[in-house]
Amino acid sequence: MIRVMIVEDDPAFFNRFCRIVTSEPEFELFGAMRDGASARESLMRDAPDVLLVDLGLPDMSGIEIIRETARRYPNTDIMVVTVFGDEAHVLASIEAGAIGYVLKDSLPDELITSIKQLRAGGSPISPVIARLLLKQLRPPDVAECEVAPLNASTLSARETEILALIAKGFSFAEIGRLLSVSTHTVTTHVKNIYKKLVVHSRGEAVYEATKMGLLK
Q1: Which pLDDT score, from 0 to 100, does residue 149 have?
Q2: How far, in Å, CA of 48 to CA of 114, rounded?
Q3: What pLDDT shows up at residue 137?
Q4: pLDDT tens track for 93-137
Q5: 3-state secondary structure at position 113
Q6: Domains parsed from the chain with CATH numbers
Q7: Helix H segments across the chain?
Q8: Is the whole-model pTM more than 0.70?
Q9: Nearest to 137 by CA among 104, 90, 93
Q10: Which residues pair with 77 in a beta bridge?
Q11: pLDDT digits over 127-178, tens only?
Q12: Alpha carbons within 13 A on the beta-carbon side of 27
């Protein structure tokens, strides 16, 4: 069972997320909080496997909860579920410790899949967020610049192809189907990408690869 904790103040989304989590046999609703203080109190006692947190809480920023949880419970996977899709919120969340970032308009099946991917070692990111990262982080003159090689750690053509699909928000399973390879093969390539870029998540990989000019 994957123990999921929800921190969300909007009543409609609060109820929606609770229904989604309780409807999935592999999930257990660890806790559901409507404000940061209640979340903090619960997290002082025990840690969930997955923390779903909104950023616009009534008493504090969800980023504070992310930072404290990541520091106290490094084995808890943290995913932002929010309406905020701007660069500042995305980067601040990743820096604080979030390893997933999806928008609230995600369908129930998409949210369930994202939670499972998160627990399996992935970093689910809504396609629109991945697109934002690419547009905002790419240097203005990248098209005219000659891309410097990564010395001995240059990504292979297949690794670059997989990284581009990751940036578009595809899951490992979806990438495998698109490339006609197994999910295990995709995972192996992703691990090599992480090693070469010296990163630990999908979001970091997209961020670093964009800065290096590896994604166009």
Answers
A1: 44
A2: 16
A3: 61
A4: 988 999 999 888 777 888 999 999 999 888 888 877 777 666 666
A5: helix
A6: 2-124 (3.40.50.2300), 140-212 (1.10.10.10)
A7: 11-23, 36-45, 62-72, 87-96, 108-119, 127-137, 157-167, 172-179, 183-197, 202-212
A8: no
A9: 90
A10: 50
A11: 777 776 666 666 555 444 444 444 435 788 899 899 888 888 788 888 989 9
A12: 26
Whether 56 shows a pLDDT value over 80: the answer reads yes
Residue 18, token pair as written in the block: 């609770």
The owner of tokens 């990284």 is 163
Encoding tokens for residue 157? 């053509």
Phi, psi values for residue 150, rounded to 5°: -90, 35
Mean pLDDT, the chain, whole residue set? 85
Buried b (16+ CB within 10 A) or exposed e, 146-184: eeeeeeeeebeeebbebbbbbbbbbbbeebbeeeeeeee
Rounded-to-integer distance, Cα 73 and Cα 5, Å: 13
Residue 162 near residue 175, CB atoms below 8 Å: yes
Six-digit token pair at 121? Answer: 């070692």
Which amino acid belongs to residue 172?
Answer: F
Q: Closest by alpha carbon to 57, among 22, 89, 19?
A: 89
Strand order in the sheet with 100-103: 27-33, 2-7, 50-53, 77-82, 100-103
Nearest alpha-carbon partner for 30 in 53, 55, 54, 47: 47
Question: Among 174, 117, 110, which Cα is nearest to 2's?
Answer: 117
Distance CA 145, CA 150 (A): 15
% of residues, the chain, pLDDT over 70: 89
